[in-house]
Each structure stands twice: as structure tokens, then as C-alpha cells.
Design brief:
The chain is α+β, with helices and mostly antiparallel strands. The chain has 1 helix and 4 strands. The protein starts with 20 loop residues before the first strand and ends in an 11-residue tail after the last helix.
């Protein structure tokens, strides 16, 4: 088995590195409260990576990207209420 590909149930930090992200997708977070499902549901769709190893790893990478994007947005809002993060390149 390749050293780059995770196996089993545990993903290491190196397996959720999203630096090879080539296409942004969507993240949907919902609260589920029904007989069939309960809790927080996080869905990531449409993300693509240059080194697509496995569906599970790519899903974890997309969630890591979303985590960091949300943390940055929260930090901006805490610093300046209503603040946002933006960037532009000429």
C-alpha cells in the first residue's frame, strides 16, 4: 500500500491537507432531528483535488477546507462585527 494513501478508520493530519485543491465545491450543514437521523449533517460536493486518492480522503479534505474557511470568517467577525474576508488580485 502506498504511504500516501490512508487505510483503516484513522486519517492522519497529512491525509486532510487540501493544498492540491483544484476545484471548489459546496458545503451544506444541516441539523437533523427525525426518527431516522439525528445530529449535524455536513455534506461536501463538487470539490476536486489533483491527487484524488479516495472518496473518503477527498471528503475529509473538503471538510478541512470548510473548517478553515469558517474559522477565518468567525475570526473576522469577532475582530470587527459584521466583518468579512475578501481578497483581490490584479
Amino acid at each position: 500500500m502506498s504511504k500516501n494513501k490512508p487505510h483503516g478508520m484513522i486519517l492522519e493530519p497529512k491525509h486532510v491537507d487540501y493544498s492540491t485543491l483544484t476545484k471548489f465545491g459546496t458545503v451544506t450543514i444541516a441539523y437533523l432531528d427525525s426518527r431516522e437521523q439525528y445530529g449535524v449533517d455536513v455534506r461536501v460536493e463538487g470539490f476536486e483535488f489533483a491527487d484524488g486518492d479516495s472518496c473518503r480522503q477527498n471528503g475529509a479534505r473538503a471538510m478541512a477546507w470548510a473548517r478553515d474557511a469558517l474559522n477565518a470568517a468567525l475570526a473576522a467577525d469577532m475582530l470587527a462585527p459584521g466583518g468579512s474576508i475578501s481578497s483581490s488580485v490584479d
